Amino acid sequence: MAAEQQIVVFSLGREHFGVDIAGVREIVRFESCRSLPGAPDFVRGVINLRGELVTLVDLTARFSMTPSEVADDQKKVVIVQQGKRQIGIVVDGVSEILRVADEEIRPVAELAFMESSAEANQVTGIAKIDGRLVVLLDLTRVLSERDQARVDAVSSA
Question: Which domain of life is it from (predicted)?
Fold first, then answer.
């Protein structure tokens, strides 16, 4: 039997991304958040999720993509664990949960343009699913240690 991964597929504009379902704690609707002056541009702010402050990261801004036309009240937040804290990843929508055979996933090492990219460690591979390409991400690496330290400094001020 071939090994497979179960992934949550979400969209940013016309692009499709996937993450290992084991890393997803929950998916919630985007609601207003408290902005953090001095935070990096890709940090939307923080929300209070059942008594815990959760930093919201806008992947469109983080990946320098063109902002989508999806209204904030239609967006979703994928909550993942990063170290001792939870972070929320703002996405345009979550479409499905799929099982993908490991042989359908091309590793990052095969993508020559990614070798020197600082973001390369966020991408775990690319899968071709039903004629579309789904970029597989490790959402726990979306914020570097340096970025997280900046957010911590701003949120504690």
Answer: Bacteria
